[in-house]
Amino acid sequence: MKKYFFYFTLLLFSLVLLNSCGEDELPDPFPSDLVEGCYIVNYGSYNAGGASISKYNYNTDEITNFYYQAQNGGAEILSNIQYGFEYKDSIFLLGNSTDQIITVNPLFHQSVNGVTTNIEKPRFSVASGDYLYISCWGNNPDWGEMADTYIAKYNILTNAVEKTIALPGGPEGLEIANGKLYAALNYNNKIAVINLNDESISYITTPAVSSYFVKDNSDNLYFTMLSTYSNYSEETGIGYINTTNDQLEEIYELENVSTSYGSMIQANSNFSKIYIVTAAYDANWNLTGAVSVFDVANKTFNENQFVSDISGISGLSVNPKNNDVYVFAAQSTTGVGLMKIYSESGDFVKDIEIGASPNGAFFLD
Question: For 107, 188, 334, 362, which has the most beta carbons within 10 A of its beta carbon?
Answer without folding.
Answer: 188
